[in-house]
TrEMBL record:
GO function term, MF aspect, one: transmembrane transporter activity
Name the record gives this protein: TRAP transporter small permease protein
Domain Tripartite ATP-independent periplasmic transporters DctQ component: 24-168
Signal peptide positions (record): none
Similarity remark: Belongs to the TRAP transporter small permease family.
Function summary: Part of the tripartite ATP-independent periplasmic (TRAP) transport system.
UniProt membrane topology term: Multi-pass membrane protein
Annotated compartments: Cell inner membrane
Record key words, sorted: Cell inner membrane, Cell membrane, Membrane, Transmembrane, Transmembrane helix, Transport
Length: 178
């Protein structure tokens, strides 16, 4: 069940990351065309940067599911199989701890309970907490940065799901044909 949920979520993450990669290409091409015509669209740069950040976090989370994240294997390559398995479990546990800390940090950063205590009044929340996450707009797009930064929630939740799945024995599908 956990492995299946992880696999489905990883496919969603990779699909979204691929769409974002295509959008980045189109945004850069749009930027080149509009600048060469002397009518630059300044918001395009910012949107391309945010799309790149989202693509990166979604891809990193999916990489955990597929077992394709960057790793240094100098030590584990020389270990016997039982020790390799133990080290792999330890790595999954460390990643799980990191992901859970990310959830905790996002919880503290977004402070949803404090916002609710202030009746979802952003100004009252800001005055009491000096947390301006819900009010700060992006430079050129004009949307709230809280929406842009919400990728941190998605990354943390995806990494938690994938590391739990890996920790409890689900073998990731590497996508390689035998």
């Amino acid at each position: 069940m956990l492995g299946k949920a992880s696999a489905i979520w990883a496919r969603v993450e990779l699909t979204c990351a691929a769409l974002l990669a295509a959008s980045i290409t189109l945004l850069i091409l749009l930027n080149v065309v509009t600048r060469s015509m002397g009518a630059a669209l300044y918001w395009v740069d910012e949107l391309a940067i945010y799309a790149m950040a989202w693509m990166t976090f979604l891809g990193a989370s999916a990489a955990l599911h597929y077992g394709k994240s960057v790793s240094v294997t100098v030590l584990t390559d020389i270990l016997p199989e039982p020790a390799k398995s133990l080290v792999a479990k330890l790595v999954h546990l460390i990643v799980l701890c990191f992901a859970l800390f990310m959830i905790w940090f996002c919880w503290r950063w977004y402070a949803p309970l404090d916002l609710a205590r202030h009746g979802f009044d952003v100004k009252a929340f800001q005055g009491a907490s000096f947390n301006f996450i819900y009010a700060e707009p992006t430079t050129t797009l004009g949307i709230k940065k809280a929406w842009v930064w919400s990728i941190m929630w998605l990354f943390a939740l995806g990494a938690t799901l994938h590391s739990l799945s890996n920790l409890f024995g689900y073998e990731p599908d590497t996508g390689e044909v035998e």
